[in-house]
Every structure is written in structure tokens, then in C-alpha cells.
Amino acid sequence: MCSIIGYEGRGEAAPLLVKGLQRMEYRGYDSAGVAILSQREISVRKGVGKVSEVNALVHMDELRGEVGIGHTRWATHGGVTEANAHPHLSNSGQIALVHNGIVTNYIELREELRSKGFSFNSQTDTEVIVNLLQLNFEETRDVKTAMMRTVATLKGNYSFAAVFPDGTLAAARFHEPLIVGISRDGYLVASDILGFVEQTDKVIYLDNREIITMKDGGQVICDFDGKPVRHELIRVSNEIADADKGEYVHYTLKEIFEQPASILRTAEKIAPEVARAAEMIESAKNLYITGSGSSFHAALVGKYLLSKFGGLNIEAIMASEAEFSPHHLDSESVMIAISQSGETADVLEAANWAKEKGARIISIVNKTSSSLAQMSSLTIGLGCGPEIGVAATKSFTSQLVVLYTIAGLLSGGTLSPRFDNLSRQMSEVLDNQTKIKALAEKLTGLSDIYILGMGANYSIASEAALKIKELAYVHAEALPGGELKHGPLALLDSNSYVVFLNPSDSTYSNVMTSAHEVKARGAKIIGISNRPSEIYDYWINLPSTEAEMFPLVEMIPMQLLAYYLAIHRNANPDYPRNLAKSVTVK
Ligand code: G6P
Predict the structure, then answer these.
(1) Is residue 411 predicted with pLDDT exceeding 60?
(2) In this predicted structure, what is the pLDDT of residue 542?
(3) Distance from the alpha carbon of residue 266 to the mean position of ligand 1, in angstroms
(4) Residues with Cβ within 6 A of ligand 1?
(5) Which segment of 196-210, 284-298, 470-484 scores lowest on mean pLDDT?
(6) Residue 576: what pLDDT?
(7) Average pLDDT over residues 247-257
(8) Residue 25 pLDDT > 90, yes or no?
(9) Does the annotation count 384 as an active-site position?
């Protein structure tokens, strides 16, 4: 999965495209490129690396011309090479194309095109689209018809944008995001609003099975059958605020530090939706909660909270495992689907699978215009602002705020989260980051680390381990305290480090027992706790909070530890290798 962008207007295309690509790099960043049309000639500049690296080498932003497209890649078909980087040109060199998604029938299409004399220069599925466009354009001399004929033969999920020799920019959407921006001097299309945030806040959200053609200051939208479509123009100023790094070195650090404010923003804005969600959840006969990555860890905390405080029987399913899970889904079932982006293919598939069986979907998303939101009976928007760092930080704590609030409503008064207190406690941890920074430096050479917790703290341990893997490339493993003696103890010796999530809640004494077992094997103990203890070799002090609320507070030192570990290990925390923020492929 990748990001695509296109511009058609009166300004210079290349600088806009390169800037937009930089903002969308979270979607993939192993190669980048642009194609610009000038006097009926298309020039392509592309290469392997991040946008800034490729630009430093081939000066993409210096190409001149008023129509163009651009791409950042996260390789699916074919290795990370210049030949596989987009844009791709058709055999005639007259059409250029960028693509996000997967064409599943590309092998058959490639054979068909080969039999008609076409040749291929890359291993991508993308090259078949651009050559089909050429074939169909040569036969019809009409961009819209060429687009319609081409999409009619494609299978899979995709969005793409293409530049035609007559100066038309055309784009199509099928189950991958594509948004149109209308600026003072032209039209833009992009995978995310962030791609054109500096140009305009006026947008059109294209639906699936739609094509847009833009030329000479005009645009036409139709569906895949050619029927004209009209869309409302939407202003999106709220969604695109805060997209800058500001004074911070990395988006990830900025987003970690935003949490005392972002959890309050979430808590304030969700009231009407969470009340409806609580009703739907309470009346459901079968209840499921799902997500991927960090959002799945939030789902695990949600399962704990809703069963403990709502007295509900709820099953947590990892989204990618949904189709293999035994289930009892029908029209009396509810699935809570959690996703920052609302575009994760595994989550969409799990939600679709539940919906087909008649279940209602409650989605918890940060992007309220996303595909997941569109297919839900009820959507709860996190409202924590754009999250650019690839690893989830503030969206995770906002997801927990939603789940705590729902559990609070269902608890009959036994759980009443005070998010204002939590916000202050998070700030306290952030103010004391020096100790965590120093600890991260000490741990720089580490190849393995264990994080132990029990109850809901085990779900936080899993999320912490994911953060350390993603950001610092250190093997990190979450351990449920009681399981230590059933296997993992065999791994520990005097070179091992174990982080204990050990707040003074109901898990405290059991976790202490595990700490003694670890100490007896000579391993080093890092205690994350509001209570000091001699057993800790390193102690990160947590502010005291209500027993049930520790998961939200203890996440902060773990995020900081992962971030600073990445810095000391010379990794770029905003763009972890091999990953992308929103994985829109299976
Ligand atoms: C990717 C990211 C993870 C993220 C997961 C789910 O794998 O690398 O950091 O947690 O997707 O993303 P979502 O947008 O569905 O929450």
C-alpha cells in the first residue's frame, strides 16, 4: 500500500506533489517518484528511498509543468527497486500512472497485453493498468471511455491516477481511498487530505466505483458505468489541523506529548455516540471486539473493561483471524471494530464478514470519513487529530478513553473515569522523561527485552512490546506474569532485562511474586510502578491514580522508552522500516 497524488491546474505541479508526498509518507516510504507533463511530453523522476532522499538525488521538484502525479511506495509486488517505483509509463511513453492497492488478475492481464505486443519493465501489477489505458485510449481517443474500459477488466482493490497526453488528469477509486481537493488554481487528488493540506480545505470524497477526469480548470465525476455523479463539497479544516511537527524533532514525539490534551479532546466529544453505543452493546446477544496491531491491544483492554464493569460476555478477535474464528454472528450480534485509519484491510474484512451475517458494527476510528466508518451502524470518532508517526501513540490512548467511557456507562457507577486527573498524571510522566531517556541509553545494545504485566496491564505490556519492536527493532515480548514459570523463565539469565508493569492495583502482589522469580535468575528488573521497591534495578515512578486507570498512565513511559531506544539505535521512529501506518492490503 502506497500513497498517490495528482495535480492539474495553473500552478507548477512538481513542488506541490513532492510536498504532498512527504506528508503522506506514513503510507509507505521505500521509494518515491513523480511524472510531469509539459508540452505533451511526460518526464519521470523516481528512485529508491524516502521522498527527501530521492529528491536530493533526482530533483523531482524541479520538473516544470502544470499537470502531474506522484507516488510513495510500500512494496507488495516486486522488490524495492527503481524499476518497480512509480510512476510507470505506458509502452508509448504517452501515459503515466501511479497506483495504490493490488490488481489480483494482473498475471492474466499481462499475458493478454503481451499477446498484443506490449512489453513490461517492472515486476509490479501496476504496469498492466497503464498499458490497458494506452490500449483503450488508442482505440477510443477518449479518456473517460478508456478509464471505464480499463476498470471493467481489473480485479482487486485499487485507486490510481494517470496523466494523458492531452493534459487530462484522470483517477479512479475502488476500495482504496481517494480524495479530491479543490484549490484556488486547480484540482488535486490524493490518498489522504494530508497530501494537499497546504493547498485547500475544500474536498470531495469520491465513493467506490467512481472516476474523475480533470482538464483545463474543469472536472467531471462519473461511476464505473459512465453515469454522472454529483458530490457535495466538504470543508475539512478540523480534520487537517495539527499536521505539523512544530517544535518537535519527530511526529512520534509530538504525538506522545499531545496525549494529556488529546485524551481530553476525545472524552469531551464522544458523549452522544458512546451513550448509543452502550445501549447497542447492552442489548446484543453476542458481542465481539476486533482490531489489528495497536487497535487490537485496545480491543483486549476493551474486552477486560466491558466484561468486568459491564458484566458482559465479549470475545476479542484479532481482525486477521476473524475468518478462522468460531462465531455466533446474527442480527442480534454487535461487533466493535477499532481502527485509527478505518482503512486496515484485515479490519474491514472482519467487519464485512460480521455484517454479512447480520451483525451491527460499532466502529471506533480516528478518520470518520473512512471505509470502516461508512459501513458501520454507529461510528465513534476519536477526534485526537491526525496521527502521522507510523506507530500508534495518541490514537491508542484515545481508543482507551472511548472504551473506558462505555464501560463506565455500563458499570452502574462502579467505574467513573476522571480523565482530567489522568491528563495531569500523564503530564507528570512526560515532565519526568529524563530518567526514561537515560534508561533507554543504557539499554541501547540490547537484543531482547521482556515486558511483564497481569490483567489489563498485560494488554499494555503487549502494546509496549509492539512499540519497542516497531520503533527500535529490538525483540520485545510481553509476558503474562503467571505464565513466567510455565516456560519463559528458561530464557532468563543475568543478561536479561524484564520490565514490570506493576501499579498498586489488584495485580500487584502476584506481579511481585514474578519479580522475585526473575530476580532469583539474576535478570535485571525495571519497575514501572507508583510504589518503590528494592527489587527494582531501575524504577520509573508512576503517579498514583485510581486502580483501574493505570493502563492509560503506564502506557506513556513505555512509549517514551520505545521512542528513545529508537533514537539511541539510530532508527527513525516516524518511519519504521518495512512498515506502513495504514495497511490496506491483506
Ligand atoms: C499497521 C500499523 C500499526 C497499526 C495497525 C492498525 O500495521 O503499522 O501501527 O496499529 O496498522 O492500524 P489501524 O489504522 O487499523 O488502527
Answers:
(1) yes
(2) 96
(3) 19
(4) 292-295, 339-341, 344, 347, 390-392, 579, 581-583
(5) 196-210
(6) 87
(7) 92
(8) no
(9) no
User: What domains, with CATH codes, occur in the chain?
Assistant: 3-241 (3.60.20.10), 245-417 (3.40.50.10490), 426-577 (3.40.50.10490)
The pTM (predicted TM-score) of the whole model is 0.78
Residue 433: half-sphere exposure toward Cβ, Cα within 13 Å: 17
The single residue of 19, 46, 469, 581 carrying the catalytic annotation is 581
Helix (H) or strand (E) holding 252: helix 251-257
Distance in Å, CA 581 to ligand 1 centroid: 6
Sheet holding 179-183, edge to edge: 41-48, 31-38, 67-73, 3-9, 186-190, 179-183, 202-205, 234-235
Quote the CA–CA distance of 381 and 398 in Å, as a whole number. Answer: 10
b/e for 429-457, b at 16 or more Cβ within 10 A? bbeebeebeebbeebeebeebbbbbbbbb
Dist. CA 60 → ligand 1 center (Å): 30
CA 210 to chain centre: 24
Which residue pairs, CB below 8 angstroms and at least 24 apart, start in 198-204? 198/19, 199/16, 201/235, 201/236, 201/237, 201/240, 202/233, 202/234, 202/235, 202/236, 203/179, 203/233, 203/234, 203/235, 203/236, 204/179, 204/180, 204/231, 204/232, 204/233, 204/234
2 is catalytic: yes
Q: Which amino acid is at 534?
A: E
* Residue range 174-200, pLDDT digits in tens: 988 899 999 999 999 999 888 998 899
Ligand 1, atom 9, residue with closest C-alpha: 391
Q: Could you report the per-residue pLDDT of 321-375, keeping only the tens digit for each?
A: 998 887 788 999 999 999 999 999 999 999 999 999 999 999 999 988 889 999 9
pLDDT of residue 242: 58
Q: Which candidate in 2, 254, 367, 469 is catalytic?
A: 2
Question: In angstroms, rounded to a whole number, what is the distance separating the alpha carbons of residues 114 and 105?
Answer: 14
**Mutate which of 255, 367, 395, 581 to test ligand 1's pocket (most atoms within 8 Å of Cβ)?**
581
| Contact present, 398 and 263 (Cβ < 8 Å) | yes
Distance, in Å, from the CA atom of 222 to the CA atom of 227, rounded to the nearest integer, reads 5
Nearest to 350 by CA among 336, 340, 368, 364: 336
Mean pLDDT, rounded, of the chain: 94
Cell 462519473 belongs to which residue?
222
Total Cβ atoms within 10 A of residue 174 = 20
Length of the chain: 586
342 CA to centre of ligand 1 in angstroms: 9
- At 32, is the pLDDT very low, low, confident or very high (cuts 50, 70, 90)? very high
Most ligand 1 atoms within 8 A of CB, residue of 192, 371, 582, 586 to mutate: 582
Residue closest to 76 by CA, chosen among 136, 17, 124, 4: 124
